[in-house]
Task: structure prediction
Amino acid sequence: MYDPSMRVLTVLELLQEREQISGPELARRLEVSPRTVQRYVARLQDLGIPVEGKRGVGGAYCLKPGFRLPPLMFSGEEALSLALGLKALHYLGLTALAPAAQGAGAKLRRTLPDALRADMEALEDAVQLDAESWVVSTDAALLATLLSAVRESRAVRFAYRSRLDEASVRDVDVYRAAQYGASWYAVGHCHARQALRCFRLDRMVNLELLDDTFTPPEGFDVLEYLRTTLPATPQSQHISVWLGAVPNALRGRVSNWGTELSEEGGGTRLKAQREHLEAFAAMLLGLGCEVRITQPPQLREAFGALARRCQVLAELPYLQANSAQGAAL
Result:
């Protein structure tokens, strides 16, 4: 559950952003009950924040006129970067941070001049990040505890359920945490296995910090470890192709999930593991560069299937036109 004190601060940010805001709207935006909103407002009043309430139909909360906290100042690029980052929390599976994102967004809008505020609001309306269908939801409080363990080099203990549905309790020296593919992972030395292991955060429960400390290895690359360690699905194919473009021209256009790019012969050697070869073949076509397939043979078949579908689509308007003319005759 998200920290209630952060929700109280979010109420303050929303009140500073608006001249007034109703209790039901606050409840909707914070995903709590109206009674809980009343407790948050009472807490702000106890802290000396002059929150005033209007009763009756159309009642709302507002700050006493003239009250403002000192604003933070951002440049235009900083403001737009922060706005986009706040929207990306859902993409990262950190939906539990939605109340904090609301408060940060309100603070950001309040500090901006009118022109930049309009740009930020336009960005929020125009940009959509639709990854919720595949990103695994992650407990933000659990992630925060893990990051504290990493920062303080303290061991943690948690209950864990493996992908084979086996339950265990682990003590782990966590070196790093990272998002990889659709999930968040913690990687470190597992005391039970006496070896380096990775653990999915959505399979952890009852996480606690221990007093034991450790010395992490220097320069540990958690993403490289995950790329080379995580098992592929039984249906995955090992792919190796040569692309007629340098690696820098491909970065950002090719997913880095389970993918390795290396310079070779004036182009790029791409190695990956994928289950859906036809979708991967379509992505390669979209790069607009030469493609040479090394493996697997099934990738050539996927290109053939795409070619047949493209041929049908290319002829479809002609067939429809002739069909319409035949019907008229």
In short: Residues 130-134, 324-329 have pLDDT under 50 and may be disordered. The radius of gyration is 26 Å. The longest strand covers residues 167-180.
